[in-house]
Amino acid sequence: MTNKALIEIKAKCENLSIIREKLKKLGAKKIGVFKQVDTYFNVKKGRLKIREVRELNKSKIVYYLRPDVKGPKRSDIIILELDKKYANELKKVLAKAVGVKIVVRKLREIYKYLGAQIHLDEVEDLGYFVEIELPIPSANSFESYKNIVKSIIKELGISEQDLIEGSYSDLLSSRTK
């Protein structure tokens, strides 16, 4: 089990090719492209999901707390890796116990730059997005790491009006209501 804190942003993006080219020019390292299915469950506080990644033999159960604000924000995350078989069984148990909130399907292209993971996401029924996640070593390093995220936002040309407050699950849920 892994506990970590990070600073993150999510932004709507009209053209991932432009961001991809900027990442190449900056020397970002491409990690790979992955098909992900995130099953979100109903919880009173935070967000709980099981992430299945088609290309890997492991799944993850992820619980996180994060304020719904635009711009760089802190996320506190607990991740437990599971064998896919156990993840499927746990998904069935959680679906019966607390209910499924929504399922998010996406194609995620991952890059590494300045210690951050940058995700270029194509989210089914939502469109294109850029996500930046930068791990922070301690609470008192938040401001300096926030400045790194701000500089990446600037380098990639992400505008403030494209920043999103919530998660893909929130965006999809609001569309289905």
Main pleated-sheet profile: 8 strands, antiparallel, barrel
CATH class descriptor:
Mainly Beta
Strand content: over 45%
- As for the number of domains, it is 1
Strand order, sheet with most strands: 1-5-4-3-2-6-7-8
Q: Tell me the distance between the termini.
A: 35 Å
Classify the helix fraction into a percent range.
Answer: 25-40%
CATH H-tier superfamily: Hypothetical Protein Pfu-838710-001
Tally of helical segments: 4
The oligomerization state is single chain
Counting DSSP E segments of at least 2 residues, the number of strands comes to 8
Q: In terms of structural class, how would the helical and strand content be classed?
A: alpha+beta
The mean pLDDT is: 94
In CATH terms, what is the fold-level topology?
Hypothetical Protein Pfu-838710-001
The residue ranges in which pLDDT falls below 50 over 5 or more consecutive positions are: none
Question: If you had to describe this structure to a student in words, what would you say it looks like?
Answer:
The protein is built from four helices and eight strands, in the order E-H-E-E-E-E-H-E-E-E-H-H. By secondary structure, the chain is α+β, with helices and mostly antiparallel strands. It has a single domain (2-176), classed as Hypothetical Protein Pfu-838710-001 (Beta Barrel), CATH 2.40.320.10. Strands 1-5-4-3-2-6-7-8 form an eight-stranded antiparallel β-barrel, surrounded by four helices.
Which descriptors would you attach to this protein?
4 helices; 46% strand; 8-stranded antiparallel barrel; Hypothetical Protein Pfu-838710-001; single chain; 177 residues; alpha+beta; globular; 28% helix
